[in-house]
Amino acid sequence: RQMCIRDSTDDIGSPEYTRWLGQKRVEFVIEELVRRGVPRQLLKGSSAGQSQLLPRLPGEPLERWRKRCRRVELTKVLRAR
Q1: Which end of the chain offers a freer environment for a tag, N or C, measured as fewer CB atoms within 10 Å?
Q2: Cα gap 75→2, rounded to integer Å
Q3: Residues 4, 72 contacting (CB under 8 angstroms)
Q4: Residue 13: left (phi > 0), alpha (psi -120 to 50), or beta?
């Protein structure tokens, strides 16, 4: 078993900066999960930065879209036997 933590950011800033910012967010989430008792060896994290922006909905205000783009996704990975 493993838990993958992946972060995405909005379109503000350079790709390098948003990847760095997203990685900091991933590290925070990992530290919080460890603090709550999840074994660190089960956690793997990465940042997509702004490379996986969500599509903007018709009529969606820019700030709402940017908030939706800033996200952390957790995925439980099961290994086949």
Answers
A1: C
A2: 8
A3: no
A4: left
Encode pLDDT of 6-15 as tens digits. 999 999 999 9
Q: Which amino acid is at 16?
A: E
Question: 65: closest CA among 11, 16, 21?
Answer: 11
* Model confidence pLDDT, tens digit, residues 29-67: 999 999 999 999 999 999 999 999 999 999 999 999 999
How far apart, in whole angstroms, are the C-alpha atoms of residue 12 and residue 14?
7
Q: Which amino acid is at 23?
A: Q
What is the C-alpha to C-alpha distance for residues 48 and 60, in angstroms, rounded to an integer?
Answer: 23
Q: How many CA atoms are closer than 13 Å to the CA of 70, on its beta-carbon side?
A: 13
pTM over 0.90? The answer is no
